[in-house]
Please model this.
Amino acid sequence: VQLQASGGGSVQPGGSLRLSCEVSGLSLRYYAIAWYRQAPGKEREGVSCISGAGTTDYADSVKGRFAISRDNAENMGYLQMNSLKPEDTAVYYCKAISPRGDYWGQGTQVTVSS
Model:
């Protein structure tokens, strides 16, 4: 099983990025997808998740700015990030979650700075 996160980069405050999580080795339709982030010197925190049925949840800090989605046919997860703030700077990770086990992807760096 592999999860490949991509789409990170450097943007100015107020900018947007779209993160992608490409999953191979499992059928994503049976998994929830979550995005986490870890800023320097801080613990990893949950950002957003989406169930197999499409139910979504967001951390208060990103509500109204971020949107999580999935494409089961393509085995992909996405995180659209708008109105980015400097405090969104972190390494972002995707995770596939099921009762049978969880899988982490490698991180992608997001830097928000003027």
